[in-house]
């Protein structure tokens, strides 16, 4: 009898706790149903969950302990696979979209949907970031920076430095006796590449560059955290890192301006920041300091993080699939054979011939879901497929679900670059660099950088992982918990 009483003392409070939160969920949904009136019945199916917190804890649970696919699977199981669900996440009333045609409509119709990140990301990116400026301002900025970032002459100018950085990196890694964190090492190299492209003409201490790498890491780690600006929280640390990073960027910009003034007409632009200092619109107006530093800051993240993670995953997928590795290697060997004897390194035209390697990159972006969500906000009430997205509600395009959809990509768990042979998919089904006017302006540069790294890897190296079954972390970008602890081994040459 005493045992039964003890169990009741444990169970009753627990049941009361669960029922209490269930009541809170119902009351929260009832509150918004009354607030929205008839519009409530026009919303997609879903659940606003708990007050204030919403589905954020569920998101964090699945993206911390896995599998992340279960977050959307819960909605599909409860409400059917309808492609749109209402919820409350990251502090906002939100419609989650995971259907290609709706994603395409949201991404391409900026008269109804504008970029709108949640509070943490919006604060860290900055108000002058390309991610957040108005459509008109974005078009102006994009027009002015296209040539410095992705113009043919600019890309050719960057290739030699990227290749030399990749060669020296692989040589150093293969000479190391101890294993290394491959992800950390690649991130260091991609940061070095981006630094040189953006600000390399200004002599900078190596300690400053390492500090900027660390600051950038602190900022990225806070992207999916709560905006709690208090010591001990990631957001607080990220804000301090952002402030310091902008101080460094501003000091470099100030130094460049002094050099330009001193040299006068003999001065010429040698890197991205130089070019941003020079560009003028049709009215003869250039960028102010805040715009330049914000753009450089935004591109540092896009240029380093996404390129590094994609390169690491491509190396892992190639290593785990020897037949695909061999096919990629044969393509690169063929490119080398057709190269004229006087040519010293990779050319832009050769990179454009790397068809299979390009498919390897696409398949890596799909399977790893480097960019797993995109954020928008409805500026008006929008009716789609008989359901309403209310004005002011956030819209999250859940790209991870599209990437792993069996109907869109048969056998989605398998790494199969050949699936992109003459691929004709649903518009909006695969958008790793975005779509419409907001498509990433640095996508060509990113693909070139990744291609050069993979070119030298498949030709000359292999890796041996120490923990091939290592668990994954999914935030802010999926990666092995040990950051891919491995040995890089130089393959014997054909002359050895």
Q: Tell me the name of the CATH homologous superfamily.
A: Cytochrome P450
Q: What's the CATH class label?
A: Mainly Alpha
Q: Compute the average pLDDT.
A: 86
CATH second-level architecture? Orthogonal Bundle
Regions with pLDDT < 50 over 5+ consecutive residues?
Answer: 1-20
Helix share bin: 55-70%
- Which descriptor suits the 3D outline? globular
Largest sheet: 5 strands, mixed
Q: Please trace the helix and strand order, writing H or E for each element.
A: HHHHEEHEHHHEHHHHHHHHEEEEHHEEEE
What is the number of independent domains?
A: 1
Structural class: alpha+beta
Per DSSP, what share of the residues sits in E-state strands of 2 or more residues? 5-15%
Number of continuous helical runs: 18
CATH topology: Cytochrome p450
Main sheet: strand order: 1-2-8-5-3
Organism: Cucumis melo (Muskmelon)
Keywords: Heme, Iron, Membrane, Metal-binding, Monooxygenase, Oxidoreductase, Transmembrane, Transmembrane helix
GO molecular function, one term: ent-kaurenoic acid monooxygenase activity
Protein name: Beta-amyrin 11-oxidase-like isoform X2
């Amino acid at each position: 009898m005493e045992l039964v009483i003890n169990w009741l003392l444990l169970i009753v409070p627990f049941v009361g706790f669960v029922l209490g939160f269930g009541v809170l969920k119902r009351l929260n949904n009832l509150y918004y149903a009354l607030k929205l009136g008839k519009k409530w019945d026009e919303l997609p199916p879903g659940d606003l969950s708990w007050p204030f917190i919403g589905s954020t804890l569920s998101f964090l649970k699945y993206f911390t302990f896995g599998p992340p696919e279960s977050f959307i699977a819960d909605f599909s199981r409860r409400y059917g696979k309808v492609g749109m669900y209402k919820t409350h996440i990251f502090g906002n009333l939100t419609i989650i979209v995971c259907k290609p045609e709706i994603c395409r409509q949201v991404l391409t119709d900026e008269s109804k949907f504008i970029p709108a990140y949640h509070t943490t990301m919006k604060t860290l990116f900055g108000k002058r970031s390309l991610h957040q400026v108005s459509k008109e301002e974005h078009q102006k900025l994009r027009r002015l920076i296209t040539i410095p970032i992705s113009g043919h002459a600019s890309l050719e100018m960057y290739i030699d430095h990227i290749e030399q950085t990749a060669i020296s990196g692989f040589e150093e890694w293969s000479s190391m006796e101890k294993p290394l964190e491959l992800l950390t090492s690649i991130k260091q190299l991609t940061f070095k590449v981006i630094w040189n492209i953006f600000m390399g003409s200004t002599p900078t201490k190596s300690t400053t560059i390492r500090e900027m790498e660390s600051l950038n890491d602190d900022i990225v780690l806070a992207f999916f955290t709560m905006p709690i600006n208090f010591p001990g929280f990631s957001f607080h640390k990220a804000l301090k890192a952002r402030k310091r990073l902008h101080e460094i960027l501003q000091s470099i910009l100030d130094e460049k301006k002094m050099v330009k003034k001193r040299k006068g007409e003999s001065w010429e632009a040698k890197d991205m920041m130089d070019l941003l200092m020079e560009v003028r619109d049709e009215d003869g107006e250039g960028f102010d300091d805040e715009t330049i530093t914000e753009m450089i800051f935004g591109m540092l993240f896009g240029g380093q993080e996404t390129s590094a993670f994609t390169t690491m995953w491509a190396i892992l997928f190639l290593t785990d699939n020897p037949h695909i590795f061999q096919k990629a290697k044969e393509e690169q060997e063929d490119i080398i054979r057709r190269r004229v004897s006087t040519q010293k390194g990779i050319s832009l035209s050769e990179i454009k011939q790397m068809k299979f390697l390009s498919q390897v990159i696409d398949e890596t972006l799909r399977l790893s879901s480097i960019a797993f969500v995109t954020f928008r906000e409805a500026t008006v009430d929008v009716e789609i497929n008989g359901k309403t997205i209310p004005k002011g509600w956030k819209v999250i395009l859940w790209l991870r679900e599209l990437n792993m959809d069996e109907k869109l990509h048969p056998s989605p768990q398998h790494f199969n670059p050949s699936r992109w042979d003459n691929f004709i998919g649903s518009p909006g089904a695969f958008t790793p660099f975005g779509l419409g006017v907001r498509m990433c302006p640095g996508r060509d540069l990113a693909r070139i950088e990744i291609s050069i790294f993979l070119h030298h890897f498949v030709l000359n190296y292999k890796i041996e992982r120490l923990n091939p079954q290592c668990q994954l972390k999914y935030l802010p970008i999926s990666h092995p918990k040990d950051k891919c602890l491995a040995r890089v081994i130089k393959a014997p040459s054909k002359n050895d």
